[in-house]
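Dig into what follows:

_____
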Amino acid sequence: QVELVESGGGLVQAGDSLRLSCAASGLTFSRYNMAWFRQAPGKEREFVAAKNWAGAGGSTYYADSVKGRFAISRDDAKNTVSLQMNSLKPEDTAVYFCVADRNPWHSGRNPRGTDMDYWGKGTLVTVSS
């Protein structure tokens, strides 16, 4: 049974920072490609960031909307992936999901994440102005 559990969400003000974490179990974490997606109320789910497994080069990817502000990292020894979010904006308000997939992320993949293998239940991030 694969389980992804997010934590670290909360209420912050614009310009603040927040760090999300995801603990994975039930899979060989180091062999999986990890990503973060988000969904704001009334909006479509969207890609945020990804970090592929070492066998796929360990490459990182970011949505244009978060590039330069967010940073994804993973710790294979602890089966965790994190998302450091800086300079938060009200438009970053969303439920953030941790995602694992057997296939590496790349720029041509569906930004809605419909083909990703495993999803966490999400953690809510609210950014006030």
